[in-house]
Write a structure and sequence with these properties.
Elements: E1 15-17, H1 26-38, E2 41-46, H2 47-58, H3 68-74, H4 79-87, E3 93-98
Parallel strand pairs: 1-2
Antiparallel strand pairs: 2-3
């Protein structure tokens, strides 16, 4: 992931660009999960590249180690919903805000 600038006091101002969706490690996926529980994280994507990645994933054309980013996306919406969002987007680039507050999850006692 690349940051143009990093604002530790204002994490919402940090926009990440995942240059290669195929190379997100399991550790990177876990880190994104942690960030999305604690903060709102913004990620910018090239819409056509994300759509191509989603299509490869849906057609099972990816090796297991290249599916981590799709698994991360599925934590928020089903892949079919992401696919529809990208297909219906008239923009070349898009920005997605990820946040999954832990206080909304059911706690098991």
């Amino acid at each position: 992931m690349d940051e143009d600038k990093f604002f530790p006091g204002y994490l919402i101002q940090n926009v990440s660009r995942l240059k290669n969706m195929h190379r997100l490690s399991k550790e990177g996926m876990a880190f994104l999960w942690y960030l999305s529980e604690s903060f709102v994280i913004a990620m910018a994507f090239h819409s056509n590249k994300l759509l191509a990645y989603l299509l490869d994933y849906r057609l099972e054309g990816l090796l297991e180690e290249k599916k981590n980013f799709a698994k991360f996306l599925e934590w928020f919406l089903p892949i079919t919903a992401w696919d529809n969002l990208m297909r219906n987007s008239p923009r070349k680039h898009c920005m997605v805000l990820f946040h999954k507050p832990s206080h909304f999850r059911k706690r098991q006692i």
